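Exercise 7.
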Amino acid sequence: MKTLKKIVSFAIIGFPLILQAQSAPTLQELIDAAMTKDAAIEQQNLDSKSNLLDQQKLKDVFLPKLEISGKTGYINATARLISPEITIPAIKPIFPGAVFQEGAFNNNFTLSGFEAAAKAEAKVLIYSGGKVKYLKQALVEKNNASQALQAKNQDEVITQISKAYDQFALVAESKKVLDESKRRLDANKKTAEKALGYGLITPYDYKKIELAQATLDSKMVEYEGKRELLITQLNVLTGIGKERIELINPNLEKIEYFVDKTIENRAELKALDFGMKAIDAKIKAEKTWWIPKVQASTSLSYLGFYNTNLSSSKALIPGSGTKLDYDLTNLNLFPIFQAGIGFKWDIFDGNEGKHEIEKAKIEKEILESKKSDTERKLQLNLANNQTNYNIADSQIEMKAKARQIAKNALIQAEKEFRYGLIKSSQLIEAENDLETAELDYQTAIFNQRRAAVELMKSTQNLSVDKL
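Solution. The predicted structure, written as tokens, is:
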């Protein structure tokens, strides 16, 4: 019973995985997989992460900062004292006065011993003059610009994958056309064999059909090569296994699309708008250079001296013979506590703030110029893509008519060939015309789909659902 339960559980879990492994990936699955592997999208995501870290860094500016430092070591300091000329006035009748010549007191005093110091200090920014606020706003707008451009990168992935997907369909349709041509040539070859036996055609005419079959075989080899290349391409772009990609067999259908939007939603314009907002915030941040910045701080310190000696190289009083040699007892100062609020006010910064403001204004003017130029180019791009779509759409109907004419011509040629009214070369020519017309029709649909994709991108309205 337990074994049966295990088998049932494995079947429930494993069966969907087996089905997925054996099923062809959908266009949506291919695009989603390609999104995760696309280098441009990955780099854009990393830029966004870096931007978010910068935002967090600005936010953390107002967090307290605590520092603990300490040091210990041996100290040996020598100071040399050379006295100038000293005149002591007389105080009669008590003191007759005295004159000490320059250098009368010439002595070296040495302090040696061990010292130790420790300090704990906390600082917190209370007010930045508004600069942090505006810099954070600038980073937010910069990230918005990056996210807006992400849509353009995603469109490029959709374009690339959908093109390969449609090429799969085009190659598959080519295979159908070639198979149908092979079927007809095989049937006409049998007719030619009978006609050759009755002397209705020459061996040369018969060889023409064999040559047509060989040419068709070479086209089949070319088809296999193109299909294998597409499989490899999608495997590299998506990471999906080749065995699943080989199962792809889509149909080519024209896309009906009518432009209902303008270029206002284009990612490039949105990114430029966000960029200008970021510069506006940067300008506001630079204008705060003269506003005082306020910071609070507090500290607790310790300072100590151990085994310290203070000595002199000569007698303290000339002629006394007594040098200074004094051992200080351990001396320490603790706690040394300090707390307060300080501010920094840049009254004049050498026009640095003014120059930064002017520089930011120039950057904004550059973006405004770029936006104006981009709008013109995108408008022309929309008009061009609309024209290309209209042409590609009209070509489908024309190619469909040409295909029907070629079909009727081949049917007529096959009838006339059976009755010996035309040569095999004329039959093969009619066969090639139909083959070309069939492929031209499928290529027209492919081109129309590509034109529709580009038209959707012109208004930033591309989505997998429309494909």
